[in-house]
Amino acid sequence: MRPRLLESNDSAREDLSALEARRRQLSEMVTSEKNRLRSAQPKVARGIQQHLDWLEKEVKKLDKEIQAMMSSNSEWRAKDEILRSAPGVGPVLSAALVADLPELGRLDRRQVAALVGVAPLNRDSGTLRGRRTVWGGRASVRNVLFMATLAAARYNPAIRAFHSRLSAAGKPKKVVVVACMRKFLTMLNAMLRDSVPWRAIPTH
Q1: pLDDT digits (tens, 9 = 90+) for 158-170
Q2: Does residue 32 register a pLDDT over 90?
Q3: 2-11 long-range CB contacts below 8 Å, 24 or more apart?
């Protein structure tokens, strides 16, 4: 449940993680302003739109700064190339994994799933056996992984097939998504562990 950290956060990674955190904050503000704009009166809609335009520009600036940092570090650049070879992995997920999950590729699949918070954990007590649930872990990584998995369920053949199989078996939607997140993360972990791009690993 609490795997030993294998790599310390150096100053460069802390800077990258800070930029990632700020991007998440601004992205959440973009979503909130878009929701407000839908029901805003004309007198306030203009101000909301102006703020929204500014926020979106700031997000784009941060994207460029994050990618510049990723490109300037040979280790991060190599990881980024491997991760983004997988359908469903874009610059946002790749940067989040590099910044906030440096253990990826150095842990086994159970450890990395627990670290992110997508591993089914028991809630047993004595002779009582509770439902297996997921909880804890690094929410910042889990949230980005969730959005990427939704895309992977459409564009990644392995995740799409897995999603379809679980859905056909009657699994609840939330269970299906979390299972796909776990499988996707396991595949990415194996790719970094073996230093191989997507096409070079088994997808069944």
Answers
A1: 999 999 999 999 9
A2: yes
A3: 2/114, 3/103, 3/107, 3/111, 3/112, 3/114, 3/115, 5/103, 6/102, 6/103, 6/106, 6/107, 7/102, 7/103, 7/106, 9/102
